[in-house]
Design a protein that fits this description.
With 156 residues, the chain is α+β, with helices and mostly antiparallel strands. The protein has three helices and seven strands, in the order ββββαβββαα. Strands 1, 2, 3, 4, 5, 6 and 7 form a seven-stranded mixed β-sheet that branches. The model has no long low-confidence stretch (mean pLDDT 88).
Length: 156
């Protein structure tokens, strides 16, 4: 895998926790362009953390789970006119049981990766260039990578 980072941009993680062909989606709270969006666990990588350590910590904070089997699928960069961020995209095994959500999310569901695109994103993309760039540069390639990685795990 070739990793191309924009050195001046901060880095974050997104992790698709899977059980078979389904991945965990969490509904975001808050008042930004991501509020109400169903997405994957993740967040900013802290100083001194490797991307995998940041991914592990974010999963623990957002779900209460200790995930295993981390596999980095890609690194994508989202850019807008004034901002940018590198995203380290992972797939990991989800433990059994229900997640314990923190205050960043208010609901969870299991779906195939492409389910992400069954929610409306047009209004969010019009309001936020960073969201629009994230959608095109991160979410779409992540769903494609997940579909490919989970081919042998699809449900009947």
């Amino acid at each position: 895998m070739s990793i191309q980072l924009e050195a001046s941009f901060p880095s974050s993680t997104l992790v698709a926790l899977h059980r078979g062909g389904d991945v965990l989606f969490l509904r975001r709270t808050g008042d930004d362009a991501w509020a109400g969006l169903w997405t994957w666990p993740g967040g900013a990588i802290k100083a001194g953390e490797t991307p995998e350590e940041g991914a592990y910590r974010e999963i623990l904070e957002e779900t209460g789970w200790r995930a295993t089997g981390f596999k980095q699928l890609a690194v994508q960069t989202a850019r807008s006119d004034t901002h940018g961020r590198n995203f380290h995209l992972y797939l990991a095994n989800a433990p059994y049981g229900a997640p314990t959500l923190n205050d960043e999310h208010d609901a969870w569901e299991w779906h195939l990766p492409a389910w992400f695109f069954h929610q409306s994103t047009d209004d969010r993309a019009r309001r936020s260039t960073l969201f629009r760039d994230w959608l095109e540069a991160v979410a779409l390639p992540f769903v494609r990578a997940l579909d490919q990685a989970l081919l042998g795990h699809q449900r009947p």
